[in-house]
User: Fold this.
Amino acid sequence: MPTLLGLGLLLIVFSLALAVVVSGYREDEPARILRGTVRRAFSFLAAVVLIGLAGLALSWYLS
Amino acid sequence: MESPAPPEDTRQRIGLAVGLSILLPGLGHLVVRRRAWCLFWFLLCQLTLFAGLLLAGATQFDYGRWFGLGAVRGIFVVLPEVANFLGTQVAAQILHSVENGGADPTWIPYRDLGHLLSGASGVLACFAAAHAAGQVLAADLPRPGRRNPGTAALASLLLPGLGHWLVGRRFKAVLLGGTVLGLFLLGMALGGFADFDRQRHPYYWAGQMFGGGAFWLVALAAAGARFTEVLRFMDAGLLFTTSAGLFNVILALDAWRRAEDDWLAAGEEEV
Assistant:
């Protein structure tokens, strides 16, 4: 079974990779790419965690 | 800031070259009469397709399906080979999978190499279209000494980030290329180097193939690896390797776009 800590670390890694690629596509200057990476990585990570929590709450409510 | 764009007639010719290239790799180069390139791309894509099909006993067709009306066969779709459209249609008509003849595909000695070659033909066909578009740009708006956008896109297929390096975006080359390669290798490690496997994950495999030359070499090196147990993070590994392949398409598009911006800006400077 995957551990929660392991999944959390992989989520952080994937969020960063996704944010780097999207920021690299949107921007051309290094400083803007780095700023965009932090913002987008946090947005994606927060969205996934929120969806996960909503799913968890729904499963508790329905069970 | 809005990027400069080529004139309308050049854009139309680029669209025509891309469309023709997808129909038959090399055909798009004839829009600007690049006959040598036309022959090169045609032979490269068809040789890789048919060599791959022969090596793998045409088992590639087990991963695709016919689309048509009722019992009438229309077009055959198998990812990513179908990007080499006419070649795939002809092959699907004349070759038949040995598996459908009752043979066990896992016994074919060069099956992995065959699938890699035929899949590469589809990916190469997409990049032949990018190259043809670059040739149209070079013919309509010549900029001697400038890096052609088609070359930049092709370089990304060779190695993620190389296209950006060639157009002078060294920071992006290292950051984006390192990210894509790192994500791919981490994903492979999480999957025990067994998750680049068409037999097991045909749709994920199509995405992984877009990682290009570097990915293909790793896949060849790990061709014998198979899952022998359920690994803790193998699903995440599959997601990472496939995402890395698709991210490389974004890198190639961006390398193309930055090269085109520089290309058009050089013209404005001359004016």
User: Anything to note?
Assistant: The two ends of chain A are 22 Å apart (CA to CA). Chain A touches chain B through 19 residues (CB under 8 Å). Chain A has two helices and no strands. Chain A has a mean pLDDT of 93.
